[in-house]
Design a protein that fits this description.
The chain is of the alpha/beta class and about 270 residues long. About 25% of the residues lie in helices and about 20% in strands. The protein has 10 helices and 11 strands. The protein is elongated.
Length: about 270
């Protein structure tokens, strides 16, 4: 079995065939959805990003979930490395939180991410047990006319059929590997994300300029206002923390609720 650590910009890039029994550094938030996704791929251990920790500590909530399945997990601090950038996590990331199985292997807060990954690889761990299914991750919200609105737990759930509509996601607002094309997979009308604490290099809102360049209104809600990884929390609880110029021109503003932001995007022709 290949024991070389995987370094990826998102857990959604994990392949169940290639990832099984491997340790992974994935620059996704450390919430429950990301932890479940990684375990479903059969990883042996994973280091994620704490995404500003945020409301109800949702940015690290996946660590307890992983511990409950016997899987070592840790996060790097949002002020030490860019969310959405696995290579940067390995180069600059510093461990911020660890779960009990990871602690038992010697991982600890303050440790460089690269060292933590080496310890996990040396442990020759078994694959994660069967993860089961996660609850519904896509919900339709009230739209207007032909424009539909969807709450998605992950930006990875956006598909071609979402073009022209509005997506309210639980994902962080950072580009993957700094690549503009990763901002969103369809030509949506507007897109809403979680700012993941904004963090170093303002990585948590880096999707917004890329969306602007594609003519898409974009905004983030504050990580302290909504649970990262939970699209319905973005919708119910989110307070806008950043907008791109197109969103501002359509009535989006910092401090408004996510519901009011969506209403403004629906009203603008």
């Amino acid at each position: 079995m290949d024991v070389t650590p995987l370094v990826l910009d998102s857990v959604t890039h994990l392949s169940s065939g290639a990832a099984r029994g491997r340790v992974a550094c994935c620059a996704s938030h450390g919430g429950t959805y990301a932890a479940w996704y990684a375990a479903r791929a059969g990883i042996a251990a994973v280091v994620l990003h704490d995404a500003g920790i945020g409301r109800d500590r949702a940015g690290i909530g996946g660590l307890d979930w992983l511990a409950g399945h016997g899987v070592p997990g840790a996060t790097v601090g949002f002020r030490t490395a860019r969310i959405g950038d696995g290579a940067d996590m390995m180069a600059r990331g510093v461990i911020s939180f660890v779960n009990a199985p990871a602690s038992a292997l010697g991982l600890a807060p303050g440790m460089p991410c690269a060292r933590a990954m080496a310890l996990l690889a040396e442990a020759r761990l078994p694959p994660a047990p069967e993860a089961g299914e996660m609850g519904e991750a896509r919900h339709e919200l009230p739209g207007r006319g032909a424009v539909r609105v969807f709450a998605l737990d992950s930006n990875g759930l956006v598909g071609p059929g979402d073009a022209g509509h509005i997506v309210v996601t639980g994902s962080h607002g950072g580009l993957l590997g700094g690549k503009p094309e990763t901002a969103v997979k369809a030509a949506v009308r507007a897109a809403l994300y979680n700012d993941a604490g904004i963090g170093i290099d303002q990585a948590g809102i880096s999707r917004l300029p890329a969306l602007q360049a594609r003519g898409i209104a974009g905004a983030t809600v504050g990580a302290d206002s909504a649970l990262i990884g939970d699209g319905m929390s973005t919708w119910r609880d989110g307070i806008i923390s950043a907008v791109n110029p197109l969103a501002a021109a359509r009535g989006g503003r910092i401090g408004q609720s996510a519901r009011d932001f969506v209403a403004a995007m629906l009203e603008h022709d």
